[in-house]
What we know:
Layout: E1 3-7, E2 10-13, E3 18-25, E4 32-39, E5 46-51, E6 58-60, E7 68-73, E8 78-83, E9 92-100, E10 116-117, E11 121-126
Parallel strand pairs: 2-11
Antiparallel strand pairs: 1-3, 3-8, 4-5, 4-9, 5-6, 7-8, 9-10, 9-11
Amino acid sequence: xxxxxxxxxxxxxxxxxxxxxxxxxxxxxxxxxxxxxxxxxxxxxxxxxxxxxxxxxxxxxxxxxxxxxxxxxxxxxxxxxxxxxxxxxxxxxxxxxxxxxxxxxxxxxxxxxxxxxxxxxxxxxxx
Length: 127
């Protein structure tokens, strides 16, 4: 079973950048699809980005496309979310999550399909 720990959140001004990391324990990280989700106060958890097992397939929410980049390093059991040109509406708790996938190119965007979650890291963007 994979366990996930996020880091890298913080307070940043609008237009700034942050890089989130999600370190995974366990031996099956390279077999799992990974995703980033976020949840703002009084809002539902929403999809941000997902990456396939090998990193060859990636998908972004429209709201972050062109500003955020998801990547993974299977040798380090880590997935990253580089966030550039941050906006106040990006303020949320960011979660990484892992999902079982049968084929290497699969990405999943529904939080219901993810079975393992980190504790979350707060990102606050001031205007």
